[in-house]
Amino acid sequence: MDKDKFILNIIHRPELVPEYAEKITGQGKEEDISREALLTESLDIFKLQQEIAHKNGLKTTIQMTYASLFNEEAVALAKEHHLTYQDEIALSLLGLPCKEFRDKYHTKDFCIWMFSFEDKKSIVNDVFGKFYECFGFYPESTGSYFMDADLINYIKETYPTVKCAVATCWEEGPKAYHTCNNSWYTLMDGGPWNPWIPSKLNSHAPAANEQEDSGIVAIPHLSRDLLACYDGNGSNFGTHPQNVLRGMIYKDDQFPYFFNLVDQYRSLKKYNHGYAYNMMFVGPGWMNKMGRWEAPYELLVKSYEDGMAYYGELKKSGQLDDMTMAEFSDYYREIKTYTEPECALWKDILYGSQKQLFWYCDPFMRACINMDQGGAIVDLRPYAAKLYWPVGIGTKHVQDASYPFLIQEKYRAGYFTHYAGEGTIRSAKLRYKGEEVDLCLCRTKATFTEEGLQRILTLKPVEIEFHGLTVSLQTIFRFEEGSSAIAIERHILSMSDPNASVELDEYMVACYGTTEYPEDMMGITLSCKGQDKEEIIPYEYKCREADVSKGQEAKAELPVIQTSVSLCTDSADTAYIREGYAFSPMFTLGLTKTLKEKEVFASWLKLEKAD
Amino acid sequence: MAQAGKGRLNYRCPSCFMRDLDIDMFYDKEKKEYYCLRCQYTGTEEDVLKKNEMARFRYRRILDRITDFDNE
């Protein structure tokens, strides 16, 4: 199987009542989602999108919406385009709103994952039943902005033809909520940025084996900028030309950023055995005749045409393979094993900062390493727990579908805090004669290599200057496939005084949550273990500390997210734990070691499911 | 004074945009100005366009076509 491919999924949906259009085009009018003008314009936009794709020699996946299944023209178009262009006829769970839906469900809810589980099943049955009535078969692909595990499991069990689904939108969470004036409830941080096989228990977390396999291949909604979306509003920085316009990332109708983004995604094949992926899925509301924010209709259409033309050129020159979702699902299962990670060494292509991030995702974790902070881990999601997290009405999480973090430097600070307390980060400090330097302040770059089952991130050495001593230190990360651990090595390459010794403090400040706001830390248990002794602190916000000599492990158990996280080694001087306090609701795990020139300290960050 | 409406294009508040907030502005025909419901920004179309240009300051590579992705 040829793995050296850049795959593109293009998806169009005849929405008929686009999410944004009624609010925008209907300004100053009473709400009427069955307005003839709205329906006609929506279908026209779908036709235009299809025409642009086909003109560039690209096939699409047509995701029929519930509303479109009541429209004979939309159904006929899908059949015709399937025959003429080999487009896949699929079924979206977006675009539910229409007169028929509202008459039956008496609600304006439109996000499938937020309904009660009973309603989810009923809606799925309605939508899939109507699809069968129109086409005489059940779809192979489906999707929404987010699909929770229970929903995926129900669909797979009831409609086993389904093998691919749009199941998340990368880092669309509190940041998107804020950007939309706290009125857009797509809270789904913490998932993979590229396709994955979702586990049966939590759809964000990739399945580790056949038993966990939900039976579908999930794809993200859009291919998003792994630096810009992590910091800013995700809806500006993806393979969605009008999102780029929304971000005002254009001048004189030119937006090279879009093409840079596609090309950076293409370049990710270096880290994933030749495989690279892109997804474009623009809802019709983004091309309505009224324009979208500052962008007039003409620019909206131009941006779509330019974007699609670039994909078309890549295809013509043999650098891109367009696939339907169902085709992609088959391909993905042929080239990927369950434990094979997705890796991305990503650089800033917009702000000119030269920052570099490394993203890693496998069935046990999603982690982000920031080279601009000396290789600190700035985001960590413990997928090892495969946390069952039902969402929707009637659950504890009506809207919050995010996978909880242990570390999230934007929501719970990182290295920098205001005057007091600590922020979440996994870094190290060096100490020498009363001075202390954190590697977070040592900006560097990294290279990626592979050895057997290890993905290795090697950081360029950094210089640490104390009064009277300069230390050259190099950090190496090793991700062993299937290990649920990150090995971190600190190499003391040289010291200006070869006889000096420094103290290395490997530490991790963490907490848990899905938003900026603190959660209750009671119930967490901290422990540190040495060769001869163990100390335990049940978290009570009492600012306590404990340490043991000949340290082997510093650990936190978080029953509320069924997660255990530890720093382990076989050679530390001490292992320590620190409880936080109300103004700093964090915990710290640490290992210290005295090192001399040419010595190396290795430790492991391990994640496990805690029952 | 008559109610406000939408202007020629659906401008967002440039001041809010710079703090990652997308807020539609409304247009006051009498004063010939856009105004933000959330913050205190008001301005003519010309001023909005000028401030939108200012908001782009952070995109230092906005016009660069980048093709080298060797992260060395």
Question: How does this model look, in words?
Answer:
Helices cover 22% and strands 31% of the residues of chain A. Chain A is built from twelve helices and 29 strands. In chain A, strands 16, 17, 18, 19, 20, 22, 23, 25, 26 and 29 form a ten-stranded antiparallel β-sheet that branches. In chain A, strands 15-14-21-28-27-24 form a six-stranded antiparallel β-sheet, with no helix packed on it. In chain A, a hairpin with a 4-residue loop joins strand 19 and strand 20. Chain A is globular, with a radius of gyration of 25 Å. Chain B has a domain of 40 residues. The longest helix of chain B has 11 residues.
Largest sheet of chain A: 10 strands, antiparallel
Provide the residue-averaged pLDDT of chain B.
93
The whole-number mean of residue pLDDT values of chain A reads 95
The neighbouring-strand order within the major sheet of chain B is 1-2-3
Number of helices of chain B: 2
Structural class of chain A: alpha+beta
Summarize the SSE layout with pairings.
The complex is a heterodimer of chains A (611) and B (72).
Chain A: E1 5-12, H1 21-25, H2 36-55, E2 61-64, H3 72-85, E3 88-91, H4 99-105, H5 117-135, E4 141-143, H6 149-158, E5 164-168, H7 174-179, E6 217-220, H8 228-231, H9 241-246, H10 256-267, E7 275-281, H11 297-316, E8 321-323, H12 325-335, E9 342-347, E10 356-362, E11 365-370, E12 376-381, E13 407-408, E14 425-432, E15 435-438, E16 446-451, E17 454-459, E18 462-466, E19 469-480, E20 485-495, E21 501-510, E22 525-530, E23 534-538, E24 545-549, E25 551-558, E26 563-568, E27 574-581, E28 584-596, E29 600-609
Chain B: H1 14-17, E1 26-28, E2 33-35, E3 42-43, H2 45-55
Antiparallel strand pairs in B: 1-2, 2-3
Key terms for this structure?
heterodimer, A: 611 residues, alpha+beta, TIM Barrel, Beta-galactosidase, Chain A, domain 5, ten-stranded antiparallel beta sheet, six-stranded antiparallel beta sheet, B: 72 residues, three-stranded antiparallel beta sheet, 2 helices, 3 strands, 21% helix
